[in-house]
Amino acid sequence: MPDSTDIEPLDPSQPAPSERAVGLARGVSRTLIDWGFATLTEFTLKTGRRVDVAGLGRDGEFVIVEIKTSLADFRSDGKWQEYLDFCDRFFFAVPEDFPREVLPESEGLMIADNHLAVVAREAEVRPMNGARRQHQTRRFARTASQRLFVATQSMTPAI
Question: What is the third-level CATH fold of 19-153?
Answer without folding.
Answer: Trna Endonuclease; Chain: A, domain 1 (3.40.1350)
